[in-house]
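Researcher: Going back to the complex we discussed earlier. I've cleaned up the inputs and rechecked each line, so this should be the final set. Can you rerun the prediction on the complete assembly and write out the structure?
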Amino acid sequence: MQSLQIIKCFILLTSILAGCYYDVEEELYGTTECTTTDISYVQDIVPILRVDCYECHSVEANFGNITIEGHSQITEYVNDGSLLGSINYEAGYSPMPQGGSQLLDCEIAKIEKWIIDGAPNN
Ligand code: HEC
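Model: Rerun complete. Updated structure for the full complex:
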């Protein structure tokens, strides 16, 4: 009789632990998800540029005579391909951000999607 209870207890414990494991996995998956629908210049793109690029390419800094702060300014580098070329470390372009590590895959994916959408000022 007692051994049956031990078995029941074991089964219960196993399912609780399995439940925990599943939750954790779900949580991890959630954090690595990258949303690239409805990309907004103001809400999605500017915050990335502010952290990684404006230090050198704000209107004031203008390093390398390049300003990407402001929609009309960045449009020039969207159109000539150097924005994507530089953040993707493509041959023929200077890798950006200069002196820093490459942008996260999700950040690059957002910028690419924004450009595919026509790089709107939204
Ligand atoms: C530490 C300063 C610094 C940071 C941070 C930086 N840049 Fe630059 N960037 C430069 C300088 C200096 C040049 C001009 C010289 C060169 O091309 O290497 C340049 C050039 C560029 C060019 C022209 C590249 C080409 O090959 O024609 C683009 C586009 C650019 N940066 C975009 C960015 C973007 C986007 C970020 C952020 C993800 C960024 N930069 C971050 C300093 C920086």
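Model: Worth noting: The chain has a mean pLDDT of 87.
Researcher: Good, that matches what I expected from the previous run.
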